[in-house]
Design goal:
mainly beta, eight-stranded antiparallel sheet, single chain, 376 residues, 3 helices, 21 strands, globular
């Protein structure tokens, strides 16, 4: 179910009149929705995918999870009509000429596998550039299905779907946001559009809840990685790019695929605070400045603490960094921590941070308890 006083957009947007296609885009603004700071569990970079859809006549279902904002080219047409950067189905019809409109229960659907299973706090159904061809309403359901189920298995009678967003009217060319209050762990979503139309992007913001047995089998793993339940809690600066990029999978592919701050003048330094998977001991550190050549951080330091209000303890002293380089450090006798703070001096950028280590017995037990409580 959904709660919260969020902006609501309904009805058509004006036809495209030229110029910037986003000039009349309906959105709560640069800050987004209250949950927009949380990771996108449906990010393709985490391994998310659109497994199936009942119809994708005009535009492919895979576009739903493209990381970049939807693109609009007013001159782009193909053999099937206007080429749209999103998922668009054909127009539904009724049974005969006396009943030309589809029945109330008629709808199109798409099955989405989350890249990182977890608790969903908010969903954005983005209809950017779908001005008069967006769905009248949408609904969304979720389920927790371990392994790699096929679309047929997910649509079978054995799977229980939990309503996350009830059937709700949406607006064209708008960011339609929904707060979610379901304290459960989900692995897959079913996105329904009533009765048909187009959706540009789907964003699923929440908190990653990893599989404890998998992490136990790995032994040593990246404790800060988004896919393993690590997350960014706060940062001094997000001017050029998000600090969450530093815990994305793989190496960065270009400069804005990392974290970069504005140029600092005078005193002070920039920093990011991370929450790890659970209480753990860090054994090895990687600080990667890939693609940051004239704007890499000059120095970096790491500190850790155990609990929300513990004292910060130095893990890595202030150390010189090189541009476009993977730096590796071994830690000895590091204390058990739940949080890590990365300080960079004085400003600049970091592409990736890897904190390799193992959960403590206490941390592993707490993680297993939370996983069980959330229905995992």
């Amino acid at each position: 179910m959904t709660t919260g006083d969020l902006p609501r957009y309904t009805g058509d947007a004006a036809p495209y009149g030229g110029g910037d296609p986003y000039a009349d885009y309906r959105t709560p603004g640069p800050a987004g929705f209250p949950f927009s700071h949380l990771p996108d569990l449906a990010d393709r970079r985490l391994g998310a995918g659109v497994l199936a859809a009942n119809d994708e006549f005009f535009a492919e279902r895979e576009n739903l999870l493209t990381p970049a904002a939807a693109h609009f080219d007013p001159e782009a047409f193909g053999h099937k009509g206007k080429i749209m950067d999103g998922w668009e189905t054909r127009r539904r019809r009724g049974t005969d000429g006396d009943h030309p409109f589809p029945a109330d229960e008629d709808h199109d659907w798409a099955l989405i596998r989350l890249g990182a299973p977890g608790v969903i706090r908010g969903i954005v159904v983005d209809t950017a550039h779908f001005r008069g061809n967006y769905p009248q309403s949408v609904s969304i359901e979720g389920t927790c299905a371990e392994g790699s189920p096929s679309p047929a298995e997910l649509l079978g009678d054995a799977v229980t779907w939990t309503p996350l967003v009830p059937r709700t009217a949406v607006g064209g060319h708008a960011a339609n946001g929904f707060a979610v209050r379901a304290e459960q762990r989900f692995t897959h979503l079913r996105l329904n559009q009533h009765p048909d139309g187009g959706i540009a992007r789907l964003r699923v913001h929440g908190e990653v809840v990893p599989e404890p047995r998998w992490l136990a089998a790995l032994g040593t793993f990246d404790l800060a990685a988004l896919e393993n339940g690590g997350r960014v809690e706060d940062a001094s600066d997000r001017f050029y790019s998000s600090p969450t990029h530093t815990i994305h999978p793989g190496r960065s592919r270009k400069m804005d695929d990392g974290w970069e701050t504005r140029r600092r003048r005078g005193t002070g330094n920039d920093w990011v605070r991370y929450r790890l998977t659970e209480q753990s001991v860090i054994r090895a550190v990687e600080i990667d400045t890939g693609y940051l050549k004239g704007n890499a951080a000059g120095w970096a330091a790491l500190s850790g603490r155990d609990g929300e209000h513990g004292d910060w303890t130095e893990l890595l002293p202030r150390t010189r960094l090189q541009p476009d380089t993977v730096h590796r450090f071994l830690l000895t006798d590091a204390p058990a921590v739940t949080h890590v703070r990365l300080d960079i001096f004085p400003d600049g950028g970091i592409a990736r941070l890897r904190l390799h280590g193992t959960l403590t017995e206490e941390g592993a037990a707490r993680l297993a308890t939370r996983h069980r409580e959330l229905g995992g």
